[in-house]
Amino acid sequence: MHPPTSRTTPPLPRTALITGVGRQRGIGAAIARGLAADGYDLALNYHDPYDRRVLGEKVDVDLLAEELRADGRRVELLPDDLEDPAVPPSLVAAAREELGPLGVLVTCHCESVDSSILDTTVESFDRHYAVNVRATWLLLKAFAEQVEPGRDTAGGAMIALTSDHTVHNLPYGATKGALDRLVLAGTHELADRDVRTNVINPGPIDTGWMDDEIRASGAASTPAGRLGGTDTVADLVRFLVSQQGAWIRGQLLYSNGGFASPAL
Fold it and tell me: Molecular function (GO) terms listed (predicted)?
């Protein structure tokens, strides 16, 4: 007797939509470079007012697009604010129109404003929820709807970035917890479309928001004595969307070097 053979997962279309790719030194940009190196054409979403408001920096995604196009990749830039519920499905539609069926969705966008239980405003909490949770749901929904159920299809891979930080970062941390649950449910609810979902918690990555004290504290709380880089996140994304990583589904993965936060 021959052992039963498992279904071989067809390769995904080499097209990806990545949200939150504003700055070249951000995690989204590193993921874009990694997927481009693997042959993916890219649609990149960004929202310049967020980077200016929270980090005091302007978006330089045009330079990233030029870099990737010079290497032969098709790159479409899709600026928009994910607080608007009409935006997520429109981004998926625009990416498909320019690149064809999407194989990968990576959500790196977020709203993140430091505030606590006593001083978070309703307006701020609602925006965090709209951007971090509702937009992620609507993006995943539109991404899955492009795949016909019940067919021998390549399906798709969706990956979301999360965090376990909550203390004095209440609306960000609370909405990231909700994001985790809805994305992980996707692997089960969307199984008939062969859409696989995972969540990555990369731990502290310095993309410009850390000062020397935070940087030193994070390194001291990591066994290797140093922080991870944006490339460490990109490497895991590249593996998860590959055929070699296709059997990892419905997981919350800690890729943080063993980081142990002194305070959640």
Answer: oxidoreductase activity, acting on CH-OH group of donors
